[in-house]
Each structure stands twice: as C-alpha cells, then as structure tokens.
Design goal:
The protein has twelve helices and 18 strands. Strand 16 and strand 17 form a beta hairpin. The strands form five sheets. Strands 1, 2, 3, 4, 5 and 13 form a six-stranded antiparallel sheet that branches. Strands 14-18-17-16-15 form a five-stranded antiparallel sheet. The radius of gyration is 22 Å and the shape is globular. Helix 2 runs antiparallel to helix 3 and helix 5 crosses helix 8. The longest helix has 20 residues, at 102-121. By secondary structure, it is of the alpha+beta class. The chain has three domains: 1-84 and 341-362, Phosphorylase Kinase, domain 1, CATH 3.30.200.20; 90-289, Transferase(Phosphotransferase), domain 1 (Orthogonal Bundle), CATH 1.10.510; 365-470, TATA-Binding Protein. Keywords: ATP-binding, Cell cycle, DNA damage, Kinase, Nucleotide-binding, Nucleus, Serine/threonine-protein kinase, Transferase. Its EC number is 2.7.11.1. InterPro entries: Kinase-like_dom_sf, Prot_kinase_dom, Protein_kinase_ATP_BS, Ser/Thr_kinase_AS. It catalyses: L-threonyl-[protein] + ATP = O-phospho-L-threonyl-[protein] + ADP + H(+); L-seryl-[protein] + ATP = O-phospho-L-seryl-[protein] + ADP + H(+).
Length: 470
C-alpha cells in the first residue's frame, strides 16, 4: 500500500495512545522511517499534546536520541516521521528474572546516561525513561524515544520546579508522588531502575511509596536477602544505593555516576547471563554497599496513578469481513507511544541488500510453527485458555490478549498468525504495559507451544519477500 507515490507502508511497528506506528520505506532510495499515525478526530485531546512533543523533539540532535524528521496533517490524521531503529526495544534484550550480563548492562547504561546528560544540557527532562522507550539501532546503539511526557525545566539559566504527575510507576522517583520536584533527579532515578531491570530481569517495586513493602525494605536497608538485590554484586549495589536515594539532593549526578567504579570497571563477558555469586553474605554486602549519602536540601511531594482498562469478557471471533475496532488509549497517560520505533538509511538504492533487510525486521518475540495458519490459531487460543489469559479476535489471524501482571497492572499484547510462503509465523507485539512482563508471558506461551515451534534459523528473507511482517 503506497503512502505517497514514493513511500510504501511496510508493517505496523507498534501501538500508542493515539494510534499506531508504521514502518514506511522510500521506494527510490530505500530509506526506512517510523511514521506515527494520530487520529485527531477520535482523539481531539491529542493535538495539543502532540504539538508539545514535536516542539521538544525537533530541538534535539544527539547520537543517543531518536531523530525527528518532520510532520504533516491530512484531514483529521496527523503523521510524525522519526528515525527507524531496527534493533528493537531494550526490554527485548532483558531475560525476565535473569537480566543480562554486566558488561552489556554497563554499555547500555553508559549510552543511556550520555543521552540523558544531553537532554538535561538542553533544559529538557524526559520523565518516562524505561526499557520500552529505549531503542537499539543496527549497531546496537541505544537511543531514547517517546517525548510525550518531556518538558522544559530550564530556560535562560533559570530552573523551575515541576508539578505534573507522570511516568510509569515502577520507574518513577518517590518525589513525583509528593510534589513539586526537581527535574534532573527524577530522570537519574529512572536510569537506576533501568539498570536494576538490566541486571536482574525485574523491577524492584511497583511504586516507591510508603505503602510499598519492597520499597520500604530498600529504604530501610533491609534488602540484602530479597530479589532483585540478591542477584547483584556489591559494586552494583553500591552504585544503586547512590542513584536510588530517596533524597533527590543526595542522588548522584550523571557526572558522578560515570566516575563510579561500576561504570569504569571492565566487566568480563561470560557465556551466559551473569547470575550473582550466592556465597556473598548479606552482612558483607551491606558493609560494602555504602548506604545513602547524607541528606541535603530539596523538595519532595506529588502523586500519579495509571488507569486500568477492564479485562475483556468473552472471547470474540468475528466473521471474516469484520474489522478490528479503532484503537483507544492502550498506553499509560505517561507516554504517547509505548512501542515507538525509529529510522535509518537502509541503502542508497532501491534494491536493498538482503542482509540489511534482515536487520530491518529483527524482533525476538516471534517464531515459526510447523502447522498451517488455521491449526496454528487453534493451538494458540488453546494455549491462551490453558494459561487463563483473556483474549479476543475481531480480525482473522489477529488475537488481542489481556491479563493482569504480577504487579497488578494491565498487560495487553497482540498475536498475529501469518502465512509466510508456506511457513506459519506467530508474531507477538506489546500494546500496553510492562515490556518485561510481556516478555515473560511470551516465553510461557512459547513453552506451551514448544511441540510445534520450528527449530533452526528463521528465514527472514521469506518475511521480507511477502511484506507480511507486522
């Protein structure tokens, strides 16, 4: 389907609060761009929010920030064109409950800090840093995206306190729940939670408030024997104690984080994800972790909650002619787009190389199965029923799955059953919720379907040839 005479819509990359993100490719030069499609008629409130997002994003130019290319409006539909990041989302690199190796987490952390440092130098605070909003390009370089909650906190050298309740609760700093708050420390706190997720494969708490037991244990230094902290070494804990300090004024600056031994140390690469040495005693770990720095001046106060959609009721499989209903706001109000993906030149000519095109569709949450599409769909919904997951299907071959994750937040994702030149592909894509929880559900689903999962490398050239990868 042509978007214009020179651009083709190739696939849907993700969904957001006000519409979808599409991958579009220029037929002449092979340039790939992520196109956010916003239905302004269905979401009239989007106009002001999107214009603010654009005003901020267009100011930015940094290797670790997704590039903004432009916008256009046709009737009641708005389009925003952004850099395409073919490496996918950071959460896809994190194994649930395990994480990733320290050397890899260190590399991504340094890149994240570099991007955030640039934002703060421009007087911009992101306020929704999390693995779902951190993308990877073809060189595995991390790039920050989704500036729907970003704002200017410093202008002409004058800094203002912020008052808006926004973010994704596990990644939000405690002072956001108390109001008002300084800008830079809240992004630094979020970077710390991202590091916890990378090192352990989980977030440490649902939200950092006094009613949360997990947070209180951390705050009172009663955390050594509980997850995720017991999975980490002393040096990582030492750094995190300084980043995740409840007092914003005592929190490490980005410059100080970069100087910490964990960031400087050369972490050795091992064969598998690094799991903590269980022989480290809690007492020794506490001695080496260096508790919070002495408190200093600053404010905390304010609060945020995320509305949850009700679980879908009965399963619905519509007739062949039925269409999926228009998208509503699946994402938390803390973000414009949960799965925003970015852009890049794929080639200097229209006949793009197969190797580059294979990178174009890289995503970990998909696999081929040995059944035809109809039988594969039957097995999929059977597995969903066995896992007690609520699902519905309005469009043939597409199933929307809804559940409540372990943090009692709604998780929504889609499964597409695709015929790829006599091979059947099951592709899963997050719509709303935590990327780690989505990955956890995907892995359990794959286990339920293990007897039909095809072994061996995936033939992505087939997917490209048929233009059917969602």
């Amino acid at each position: 389907m042509d978007f214009t005479a020179d651009w083709m819509i190739m696939q849907t990359l993700g969904e957001g609060a006000y519409g979808e993100v599409k991958l579009v490719i220029n037929k002449n030069d092979g340039m790939a761009v992520a196109m956010k499609v916003i239905n302004l008629q269905e979401h009239p409130e989007a106009s002001v929010n999107v214009q603010k997002e654009i005003a901020i994003h267009r100011m930015l130019s940094d290797p670790h920030i997704i590039k903004y290319f432009g916008q256009r409006t046709e009737g009641s539909v708005g389009y925003i064109f952004l850099e395409y990041a073919p490496g996918g989302e950071l959460f896809d690199k994190i194994e649930p409950d395990v994480g990733m190796e320290s050397w890899e987490a260190q590399r991504y952390m340094k890149q994240l800090l570099s991007g955030v440092e640039y934002l703060h130098s421009k007087g911009i605070v992101h306020r929704d840093l999390k693995p779902e909003n951190l993308l990877l390009d073809e060189h595995d370089k991390l790039k920050i995206t989704d500036f729907g909650m970003a704002t200017v906190f410093r202008s002409r050298g004058k800094e203002r306190l912020l008052d808006k309740k926004c973010g994704t609760s596990p990644y939000m700093a405690p002072e956001i729940f108390l109001r008002p708050y300084r800008a830079e420390p809240v992004d630094i706190w979020s970077c710390g939670i991202v590091l916890v997720a990378m090192l352990s494969g989980e977030v440490p708490w649902e939200r950092p408030v006094t009613t949360c037991v997990d947070y209180i244990k951390w705050k009172s230094s009663d955390y050594m024997s509980v997850s995720p902290w017991k999975k980490m070494d002393n040096l990582a804990i030492s750094l995190l104690r300084r980043i995740l300090n409840p007092m914003p004024s005592a929190r490490l600056s980005i410059a100080k984080i970069k100087q910490h031994r964990w960031c400087i140390k050369r972490h050795m690469q091992t064969k598998g994800p690094e799991i903590l040495d269980r022989s480290i005693s809690p007492a020794y770990k506490r001695l080496k972790s260096n508790d919070f720095s002495p408190p200093s001046r600053d404010d905390p106060r304010q609060c945020h909650s995320q509305p949850e959609l009700l679980l879908s009721g009965p399963h619905i499989i519509s007739p062949t002619g039925a269409k999926e209903p228009a998208h509503v706001s699946f994402s938390q109000p803390a973000q414009i787009d949960d799965m925003l993906v970015s852009t890049q030149y794929l080639a200097t000519q229209s006949n793009t190389s197969q190797d580059t095109m294979q990178k174009l569709v890289r995503r970990m949450t998909r696999f081929f199965v040995s059944l035809d599409p109809d039988k594969a769909l039957d097995r999929l919904v059977q597995a969903l029923d066995n896992m007690a997951l609520s699902w519905r299907s309005y469009t043939p071959g597409i199933v929307t799955i809804t559940t409540i994750d372990k943090h009692k937040n709604q998780l929504t994702f889609k499964a597409s059953v695709l015929d790829m030149d006599k091979q059947t592909l099951l592709d899963f894509r997050l719509s709303k919720g935590c990327g780690l929880e989505f990955k956890r559900q995907f892995m359990m689903l794959r286990k339920h379907l293990s007897d039909i999962v095809m072994k061996g490398p995936v033939s992505w050239s087939i997917a490209i040839a048929t233009n059917n990868v969602p």
